[in-house]
Amino acid sequence: MMDTPVYTVAILTVSDRAAQGRREDLSGPALRESLTTLAGATVVDEAIVPDDVSAIEGALRHWVAQGVDLVLTTGGTGFAPRDVTPEATRRVVDREAPGLSEAMRAASLAHTPHAVLSRAVSGIADGTLIINLPGSPRAARENLEAILPALPHGLAKLKGDPSECGSPP
Amino acid sequence: MMDTPVYTVAILTVSDRAAQGRREDLSGPALRESLTTLAGATVVDEAIVPDDVSAIEGALRHWVAQGVDLVLTTGGTGFAPRDVTPEATRRVVDREAPGLSEAMRAASLAHTPHAVLSRAVSGIADGTLIINLPGSPRAARENLEAILPALPHGLAKLKGDPSECGSPP
Amino acid sequence: MMDTPVYTVAILTVSDRAAQGRREDLSGPALRESLTTLAGATVVDEAIVPDDVSAIEGALRHWVAQGVDLVLTTGGTGFAPRDVTPEATRRVVDREAPGLSEAMRAASLAHTPHAVLSRAVSGIADGTLIINLPGSPRAARENLEAILPALPHGLAKLKGDPSECGSPP
């Protein structure tokens, strides 16, 4: 029996209303459920912050410093005046991974024409992969599930797995 | 009967030859016609500038300062040495909206393999959404029409509509 | 009989192991073979550098200064800690061409879900088009071939061909 690697995951809900306790956070729990299909994923922390660049940036930097493998954010990726999750994320990542966000938007277009409005970004900060997801629980899950099949390989490479990408299994 | 919101729109044609009067501007009028299907869209201004970063930037900043809701540019998004519309646009926007340009290119690929050469960008500057479109009248219309169904929702959110994206209608 | 324009091409293999002679470079030769279908393409130089930002940047700047029309890189576009080819490329280009990388990833998704992990970028530096490709020989060829039909037009425009993009042939 092979060992399944353990990936530590943190989930950040970005929402003024959820941060004020005026709305129940449904997206965080929805993502937690989707992650059960990512073998070895262990959610080690969750937080809720308002739609504020500094608050988002601070939460992301905290988890990067802790060496969390994967950070998922939900919310703040749209056109509303206070939607700034992508801008906060760009401040933290040092290597962008645009393919993840492109593929999520393309998959999401099969569900809704509004998919094109997502401004989500993805990228790497040190050894942490950060992925922005939309704010609605259903859209957040649909987006994550579109790229989930690629995450074990991506996270393994990020941790320094030296196997060749093009080599046969 | 419901009120249809009014969206103010400005159209910028970017072309050395059109700015010099050596070519008739066909793309601006073509876009104006496409916009008739966007309920409530009112074209409030149009201009023609040469392929010059400062001229483009100046026109965009003027309309952002005036609070125009939507600015469409046509031309200057390709590989020619003087094509700099995306660079001028990036100087003005403070929040990029890559999903719009991605979706337009993907839709355009159904018409021509040259779609991959579009360097168009989209983004938000204060309360103004700026979208780069190609220079040919037909491509400009095809690109715009690919994202038109999402624009009412995007423009409403940009103006501060507090409805939840994920809530049922 | 029409003259076929000559496009000068340089190929950069980015790989620590290939640079150390510990692995044979198979991707460079694979790309050379794909280019035989690009009429007029002449490979004028090839090099192998390690996964080091300065080494990659130096090779790219050398070819830009020489006026090479097209530079293809292979390798260093993934999630491994030393994968920095996109970051080195962004330092060199002055006009990004995101449509090329988007289309390559979308086409690559038909072959493998790992396509979303490619962080490849494309862009223009002066008169040189630089395109990042993945490191595996097969993926590098598949990616290049997805955009090859658009390259003659793109390279002609880059060299200043004044024909209208939207005009009939």
Outline the biggest β-sheet of chain A. 6 strands, mixed
What is the topology, as strand order, of the major beta sheet of chain A? Answer: 2-1-3-6-5-4
Order of helices and strands of chain A: EHHEHEHEHEEHH
Assign an overall shape of chain A. globular
Report the sheet-strand fraction of chain A. 15-25%
Most extensive interface, chain pair and sizes:
A-B, 27 and 26 residues
What is the average of the pLDDT values of chain A? Answer: 93
Helix content of chain A: 25-40%
Derived from helix and strand composition plus strand pairing, the structural class of chain A reads alpha/beta
Oligomer: homotrimer
- Straight-line N-to-C gap of chain A: 17 Å
Could you walk me through the main structural features you see in this protein, from its secondary elements to its overall organization?
- Three copies of one chain form a homotrimer.
- With 169 residues, chain A is α/β, with parallel strands linked by helices.
- In chain A, 38% of the residues lie in helices and 20% in strands.
- Chain A is built from seven helices and six strands, in the order E-H-H-E-H-E-H-E-H-E-E-H-H.
- Chain A has helices at residues 16-19, 27-34, 53-66, 85-92, 98-108, 137-147, 151-158, and strands at residues 7-14, 41-49, 70-74, 95-96, 122-125, 128-133.
- Chain A has a six-stranded mixed beta sheet with strand order 2-1-3-6-5-4, sandwiched between helices.
- The model of chain A has no long low-confidence stretch (mean pLDDT 93).
- Chains in contact: A-B, A-C, B-C.
- The interface between A and C is medium-sized, with 26 and 27 residues.
